[in-house]
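Hi P.,

Sorry for the delay on this. The queue was packed all week, but I finally got your sequence through. Input first:
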Amino acid sequence: MPNLRDQHKRAYRSWITARQRCNNPRKDSYERYGGRGIKCRFSTFEEFIEHIGPCPEGSTLDRIDNSGDYEPGNVRWATPTQQGRNRRSNRLVTYKGVTLSVVEWAEKVELPYYTLLRRFACGWSVERALTQPIRVQKPRIRQE
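Then the structure:
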């Protein structure tokens, strides 16, 4: 019968990689993890897999709070889309008590992402940027 590591090869690799990011200064990614004080609080693979379960196809390990450790309650299997929306570099916007990334707000209010970015760059208030409809420009008629 295969052991736990063999049964969960992808999850095992994720656990090993997380530990290396946090503990091995020779790893390229160390500065973004261990160098920032991020720790891997799962001391055994068995503890890790018991908490998070098997890795679904197309998912990778993700920390829910990017400033938090790899620990129970702060890790999940996430799709590439979820991972992209959970980056430290994303701009978060709060409106009426709800905090979302700009791309999530764009989807929610049905405005193009780059329109919202331009509005914020121009100094628009959050309310105005999220609620003002796009002005439809009338086509110009050429005069001959």
